[in-house]
Specification:
Blueprint lengths: L7 H10 L7 E2 H7 L6 H9 L12 E2 L16 H8 L4 E2 L2 E2 L2 H4 L3 H4 L3
Parallel strand pairs: 1-2
Antiparallel strand pairs: 3-4
The protein binds a DNA duplex through helix 2, helix 3 and strand 2.
DNA sequence: TGTTTGACCGGTC
DNA sequence: CGACCGGCCAAAC
């Protein structure tokens, strides 16, 4: 049974909130963790409304290439990369360097 | 109620 | 290596 708080959106937000500082995750990983395997687009769509929420570090969510696809949705285009750099993540040309190293998979660290 | 779109992913050409 | 296509699911129109 679905309640207002069990929306897919909220689940996405909660997972993103659990991403540790200095780590990044991908839309696909979140989708997979939520059981919506292959529905990374929905996660991206959910992130579109994430900016209205205070504690959702959307800058830690990138696509599988480590590319900051969502930078354009921030207040400033450089805010996303700047924040990641500030957390110790190397970002170059809007791409997360050593992405595999900083990658944080919720399915590997969380448990339903 | 049906169509369109979207901060994606994977495989193919 | 770059471009193209299909699929996946939910919200907005």
């Amino acid at each position: 049974m679905k309640t207002d708080r069990d929306n897919f959106f909220d689940l996405v937000y909660q997972v993103v909130r659990l991403v540790p500082r200095g780590r990044v995750t991908t839309y696909g990983a979140i989708a997979n963790y939520l059981g919506a395997k292959g529905s990374a687009r929905v996660v991206g769509y959910a992130m579109n409304a994430a900016h209205i929420l205070p504690d959702v570090p959307a800058h830690r969510v990138v696509n599988r290439q480590g590319l900051l696809t969502g930078k354009h949705h921030f207040r400033t285009s450089n805010e996303m990369a700047d924040r990641l750099k500030e957390e110790g993540i190397t970002v170059k040309e809007d791409c997360v360097q050593d992405f595999a190293t900083f990658f944080w998979d919720p399915a590997l660290h969380l448990d339903f």
